[in-house]
Amino acid sequence: MKIAVIGANGKSGTLVVREATERGHEITAIMRSEHPTPAQHTLIKDVFALTRNDLSGFDAVVDAFGIQTPENFHQHKGHLVHLADALSGTPTRLLVIGGAGSLYTDDTKTKRLVDSPTMPEEFKPLSIAKTQAYDALRIRGDVVWTYLSPALVFNPEGERTGEYQLAGDVLTMNADGQSEISYADFAVAVLDLIESGEHQCERVSVVSR
Hints:
alpha/beta, single chain
């Protein structure tokens, strides 16, 4: 399959590229500047400058965009709207690596994690920005999207076990009562969803077993 990874040099994007290339897919790494990558192709371009033509011909586009400066948190929503507009009406799937804050705390779906005491105050501004981005995407009926929320503890140093469980809109715990997932296992889930074609126009959450 032909897959583009936006933010291919970031922590999540790097592991998605690695997982995808090891599975034999044809990968285009989209980055703002040159970085070493195992991807077969690279496109050096800012996400806001990407055009419909840049993204044409791919089976899937993985959005691993990330920004950590508070004054630019609004770009989480802005860039996602831009990508959705560029892919509008096309068969190309858009898989977004999102946040956990928009998950509901229980099955009543009356409170989101970002609004609960569980969410540390220092993480709330970023979580709010990512939640706003998700809310802008989930109403789109013109894009074949899948939004992936990691577990509450998203561990960049965790090992690749190749095992995980998919859940839905509600924060889910693993067998040990923890909400956690490694970046490496999250990348496995991303590729599995691309290959299976499942959960189109849905949000899924990913948690370790």
